[in-house]
Design goal:
globular; alpha/beta; 11 helices; 8-stranded parallel β-sheet
Length: 253
Amino acid sequence: MRRFEAFEALHIPGDPVVLFNIWDAGSARAVARAGAKAVATGSASVATAHGYDDAEGLPLDLALANAARIVGAVELPVTIDFEGGYAEDAEGIAANLARLAATGAIGCNFEDQIVATHATPERRMYDIADQAARIAAARRGAGDAFFLNARTDIFLIAPGDSHDLAMADAAIARGKAYADAGASGFFVPGLADLALLERVVKSVALPVNFMAFPGAPSAAAVAATGVARISHGPFPHLLALKAFEDAAREAFA
């Protein structure tokens, strides 16, 4: 129980916990040595590291086994990017979240984009009521203490130059519904407009998660909006792969 409580307590508006996303037990130990307060996976990073595509291309059993190895490798709380829960129906979601909680993970990301549409031109999201029901099922499966970080993909699907007040208000409506359904946090990847971010933070009664990316506002500027969590998505893994490839090219030259 202490890990659940310790992880939740890290989410301080204006003083966000920083999660430098990892993909396996070795990278988890690396961020722990660097001073991480908690460990978080990124689904794209985990999938790529195992030779699969993102969007639940990684088999569920392998995703769970990897989660368990990460949990066993560090003394820190571990949260898993669990994409859409590897199911559409409530019964399947509850069962899969129970399996994830059994690995020792203390939380997960749970997204509202329909995973099957990720690689299509028509990327779609569950409507609010359906996703709220999915979150409620996830809560039943994972238990009361599990940190369910409800992710909305509104700002990932839409180009950055189209982000506006109406879109922020649509995200706020989702955040409120997700909170009522049992979410612990609200994740808005792709949103970089600080005024819109602050509007979301002030309107949703959950700790808000910002995703850092190359060219994004500084961590200090993001923290000033009241964000409680900053994660880094696939970018640490991409950085590590580039460094490895560059070193290989130098060795082969």
